[in-house]
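Encode chain A's predicted structure.
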Amino acid sequence: MQPRPALQRWWHWWLLLTSLCCASGAYATEAQLQLQAVFLGRFASYVQWPEGPQRQVFEMAVVGPNPFGQQLQALYANKLIHGRPVRITQADSVAALGPQPPDLLFIALLTVAERQAAIAYAHRAHILTVSDAKGFAEQGGIIQMTRVAQNVQ
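Encoded structure for chain A:
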């Protein structure tokens, strides 16, 4: 019996994640950020989006200080999510995101009040929200990435 492709993919990601456990110092931080960047696309690809008109591109936005630098642009330059090319945008605040809401919003805002405002905006616009901020899920965010013993979970 052949393993299912989805199970194989998760197994590969688990191996990658556990292999990064041993990294230390600045390399661990870079590796963890790169792994988080990969997870953003994975989260988006596993979400079943509502039917209806869709844009020509899948927009992934970071609001607040961008922890990824150019990693998202480099990682998703030639990738597709749900058959659409990926566009990465960055904004300092929710107000600066523009009139068209993104499909996925990574919230890197520093204060609880700013994060709560971004979560409220995302709920109104039906945006998938992701953050690594402590308490993000309890505040209404959808996916909270956490580090346990220096591993992204």
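Confidence is low (pLDDT under 50) at residues 1-28.
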